[in-house]
Automatic annotation (TrEMBL):
Its EC number is 1.6.5.2. This is NAD(P)H dehydrogenase (quinone). The lineage of its organism: Eukaryota, Viridiplantae, Streptophyta, Embryophyta, Tracheophyta. Keywords: Membrane, Oxidoreductase, Transmembrane, Transmembrane helix. Belongs to the WrbA family. The chain crosses the membrane at residues 6-30. It comes from Glycine soja. Residues 31-222 form the Flavodoxin-like domain.
Length: 233
């Protein structure tokens, strides 16, 4: 079971980086339940990415929740029977507020090898930003959760890049900068050169230690690049 179908909102993590007295905002946009990754897979990766970004000198992390303009697809009673976590009270951010950030990491569950439609709905609401090209030139990364090993660990990121391209954003993959962890063959591990990832399975599997380490690395890596770009501007 992929954790895609109860998406209602996004979790947004905003990182503030002080560069020579100037504030740099680095936003981590996470598709999930109202912390919505149903069973918490995307949320757990997001927490590690936040820690990684915070490990960069001068970086402060804050959490926000971004509203998706689609209704909840399951009733609270059904969500309870599925052991879905409680809803979050994290502050809400709107699509237009994305322009205040200097860099992004977009995270979301997968549906048929692509980003969940609910997350796409949020990006569809950024048309005003696109017309003004307010996100152009800003670095962005991607991470994800899939239901299985064949569920789209690479295609999800690959097809999501089109969203960045139309906004003129700069895609920042992690490549093989994670080192030996990229070549793990003995254990099941999500993620790819595109970004950190995990497998949800039927919901019972949680991100492994290695997957969490990769997420931490991605946060640190992209936050560092965002900081350098801001300083060079």
């Amino acid at each position: 079971m992929e954790n895609w179908f109860v998406l209602k909102a996004l979790l947004t993590v905003v990182f503030y980086v002080l560069c020579d007295g100037e504030l740099v905002c680095f936003a981590l946009i996470v598709g999930g339940k109202e912390y919505y990754s149903m069973y918490g897979h995307v949320e757990k990766l997001a927490e590690e990415i936040k820690k990684g970004a915070s490990s960069v000198e001068g970086v402060e992390a804050k959490l926000w929740q971004a509203c998706v303009y689609v209704p909840e697809t399951l009733q609270d009673e059904v969500l309870g029977k599925m052991s879905a976590p409680p809803k979050s009270d994290v502050p809400v951010i709107t699509p237009n507020e994305l322009s205040e950030a200097d860099g992004f990491v977009f995270g979301f569950p997968t549906r048929f090898g692509m980003m969940a439609a609910q997350f796409k709905a949020f990006l569809d609401a950024t048309g005003g930003l696109w017309r003004a090209q307010q996100l152009a030139g800003k670095p962005a990364g991607i991470f994800y959760s899939t239901g299985s090993q064949g569920g789209g660990q690479e295609t999800t990121a690959l097809t999501a890049i089109t969203q960045l391209v139309h906004h003129g954003m700069i895609f920042i993959p992690i490549g093989y900068t994670f080192g030996a962890g990229m070549f793990e063959m003995e254990k099941v591990k999500g993620g790819s050169p595109y970004g950190a990832g995990t497998y949800a399975g039927d919901g019972s599997r949680q991100p492994s230690e290695l997957e969490l380490q990769q997420a931490f690395h991605q946060g640190k890596y992209i936050a560092g690049i965002t900081k350098k770009l801001k300083q060079a501007a």
